User: Fold these one by one.
Assistant:
Number 1:
Amino acid sequence: MPVTYRILGAPSLAVDLAGHGPFALFMHGIGGNRSNWRAQLPAFAPHFACAAWDARGYGGSEDYEGALAFDDFVDDVLRVLDHFGVERAHLVGLSMGGRIAMRTALRHPDRIATLTLLDTHEGFEAFTPEQRQAFVDSRRAPLLAGKEPADIADAVARSLVGPKATPAQLQQLVDSIAALHKASYIKSLQATVDQVVLGDISLIAAPAHFVVGADDRLTPPAMHHEMAAKMGGAPVSVLPDAGHLSNIENAEAFNQAAIEWLTPRASMGSTPGHWPI
């Protein structure tokens, strides 16, 4: 069973940790929390020290004052690594978590061993202005009009999952969205849309593996092949029977593909230097 740690600071962060070995940090999407990785930690734990965080303003992590700059997430990644005494980490990021992972690899290449990037994109430059507006309006506008995350959870979840998602998988995503901290989620929406580009991802030195659901409508497979080409022809695993939440919708296929690629590269990362209380 994972042990929950609290990373002190402003804001404090909640992190679940399971297993032993090289450190791998799992980062959820903009509508998620650390529970989105509950099918991954047991599978990866025999090979890695697996940490799943709640990003600032999500789940068990604290809210914070002022606006959010996207690079605040990057600074938080370093806080987690430093807390566990990790020199170089494997990053596994879904959607917004994938963008955080790529941005961290660009800003701090010496701290990142590999990237496993799921159902993500390199910034809203890849979307038309109409797509950007639709993304924000479907989420932020109802909240600013007085609705709560629970009020939009079902509609947003259904827009993300593929047609073969089970009721249980859909409900897991609905629960994640319903649990969002409203003010912090609005800040995340603004910050992620404001950051039109992450930077030149061709400059990322860390080996990368892209994973995408075959039925992902928001960030489709073609988008991942384009990013992979910029990153030296990185491999792309397209998972059947999955939409934008491929690690939830087809957990078995994701775990197999990700572990097969990552395990031979495990030694590129560092094991935790200490296990704080």
Number 2:
Amino acid sequence: MPLTDTAIRTAKPTDKAVKLFDGGGLYLEIAPSGGKWWRLKYRFQGKEKRISLGTYPTVSLKDARERREQAKRLIEQGIDPSNQRKEAKAAAAAIEQEQNTTFEAVARDWFSKKRNAWTPGHQKKILSRLENQLFPILGDKLFPALEPADFLTAIQKAESRGAIETAHRLAQLCGQVSRYARIVGLTRYDVAAGLTEALTPVQTNHYATITDPAEVGHLLRAIDEYAGEPSICFALKVLPFVFVRSVELRGAEWREFDFESATWIIPAERMKMKRPHTVPLAHQVITLLNDLHSLTGSGRYLFPSLFSASRPISDMGLLNALRRMGYAKGVMTIHGFRSLASTLLNEQGYRADVIEAQLAHGEKNAIRAAYNHAEYLPERRQMMQEWADYLDELKTENNLA
């Protein structure tokens, strides 16, 4: 007797599996757990076989009967429904696998594994290069089929418009994704290796800086005499003493400072290398910060924007101030304060490891990096105070040598 919806709904599980037959090999199997499975029993080439047609109520009685008829039509055509299903699953899996091996899929997988080690700004930059410059050309190509010429076509787009450095960065990015693809078994070798050999060489431009002591003194006096927005003025006065990166200085928050220990700890998420960085503060910096606190201490940032206290000053604001003081692009930059400090501290005989630690340059060995942080801090604190005293001496010199 054929099944009815009422009979199916009211059927109760027992301690053993129960089968309710509908006819034509279709039956509903009720498991002791309460699950209801549609099954189809049929014979193919003399052998009895079974396949599942889904679960009730997701698959209704009407749907189950339609699936039974579809299976019968396959059998009449000499096709085993079970084998046909396996082949369909294999084909779907192959399509899915193919979709997962496109350049875009592989690059996004690589990006997802790397992004947590980068600052938000760097994440945005890398993703933009992928989405705007590489995916439009390489995105839907299967990685195992990619050749060096494919990558070269993509990166030469940037080169053709004169963006030589960008082209080299894209080549580097392609290489990183390609090496990841090799590691996960999608290609036998780094198919993007050596791309820069086919590109116009980059003309290296170092950040302009001043390293002559007399000229440094002149620069410091120009900063002291500069009359501009308070946040810009104080940021420029603090920067030579701490020589951190511009983004680290501009985003400084009052909560990061411990005035009792004269220490500024920049959190990992704001650092290029994603590690906290300690900046010992000379007494000259403490004096500047106390003066600044009366102006901006009620807010979040030390150097809030003139237009909105909810965001800090911009790099362009600092750079424009330098230009107004008469320092052209080829003479001095904001990043140049780091080169200035590095050059003069090395000339004065401070240990290179101590200077590098204070500059927060990357240490490949994470254990050594942590050790250096603890081992060098007393030396760094002494160096930073002596550096501040040295800058004061340069600033008070009356004559340029």
Number 3:
Amino acid sequence: MIREFEHIDLRDRNSFHVAQTAARLVEFETPDELRELFSAGAPRQWYVLGGGNNILFTRDYEGVLFCPVGEGITTLGEQGGTVRLRVEAGVEWDVLVAWSVERGLWGLENLSLIPGKAGAAPVQNIGAYGCEVKDALESVEMFCVETGNMLVMDAAHCGFGYRESLFKHALRGKVIITAITLRLSRTPRPRLEYGDLQREVEALGGPTLEHIREAVCTIRRSKLPDPAVTGNAGSFFKNPVVEKPVAERLRESYPDMPLYPAADPTKVKLAAGWLIDRTGLKGYHEGRVGVHDRQALVLVNLGGATGGEVLAFARKVQAKVHEKFGVAIDTEVNIL
């Protein structure tokens, strides 16, 4: 069922809790409803707003926000221990992870407690603890705004990279994701490359699905602020990927600097949180905005901050990191 709102306060629809408004917001459940909404053509300005967990509104939004609210999870079939699921875009991601763990399905457990909706997961190629959504994704169903047709794109064609996809670039503003299909497994496939996760799982008694999910949730809760209590969008910055010689030169000056392999073997991934921490900004704040005191990747709204204040503070953090290390850190959060 289509539900429409005009001049709506977005404070409770974005995890930073900034008090901006939208001229119009529309909730939809099905592709047919989307087709109806776009039957007269696309609005001049529009954006898909899922859970509001990876966005910073810096001004009132003068266009239309489309919000998927379909919450169906359907088992499409099982073969050789592989289970295929169709998940509608409005499903809360962590509800999906819990659902899969309860049914003994491997593949999403490392992505526990990531906020947001299932439809947004491919856009950002969400990831944590050595896993990304692309590892379990089979295909994406989407509504083509220009033609009104439904399209299905295989995961191999989605242009996935580190927090990247075609949906952020070539397909931005052209399609709306309505559902995803996942391939999960009944065969145990624990991914415990990260030391803190491995230690937590071992302390719980070993690598079962339940233990891995519990361990990930425990670690995330210990490091990350609850958006319901403190406004934030999780990791505000992406880990920078640099050429190997750059990483090696930095490692000479900072022997304890953590380095991680990148998809490109000629490059290395640095830890943005570590870089920010070493500038002395961890726990630092100016006015109503600050860097979280337990995870330097996270910027927090300490109460009543505007999106503009958060963005200005983020630019200062980027400048400090570049000044000290000569490395640019990009924002992970979508800024409107």
